[in-house]
């Protein structure tokens, strides 16, 4: 699962939302612009979520990809 937290004024965290990684054993993730991309090591796949800039809530975009050895992610711009 992926958890969205709020940082309180005193520095403590408050959990706001839980979102399934949609795979098995989420191992790595990266944020690119307004997207969160999650690599699931156990199911060899990655899923793309849109990040709400105001609330931090995640929405699955419908985009997923099978990749062998999904462990970490890096976005390369061309």
TrEMBL record:
<dbReference type="GO" id="GO:0017057">
    <property type="term" value="F:6-phosphogluconolactonase activity"/>
</dbReference>
<protein>
    <submittedName>
        <fullName>Uncharacterized protein</fullName>
    </submittedName>
</protein>
<dbReference type="InterPro" id="IPR015943">
    <property type="entry name" value="WD40/YVTN_repeat-like_dom_sf"/>
</dbReference>
<dbReference type="InterPro" id="IPR019405">
    <property type="entry name" value="Lactonase_7-beta_prop"/>
</dbReference>
<comment type="similarity">
    <text>Belongs to the cycloisomerase 2 family.</text>
</comment>
<dbReference type="InterPro" id="IPR050282">
    <property type="entry name" value="Cycloisomerase_2"/>
</dbReference>
<dbReference type="Pfam" id="PF10282">
    <property type="entry name" value="Lactonase"/>
</dbReference>
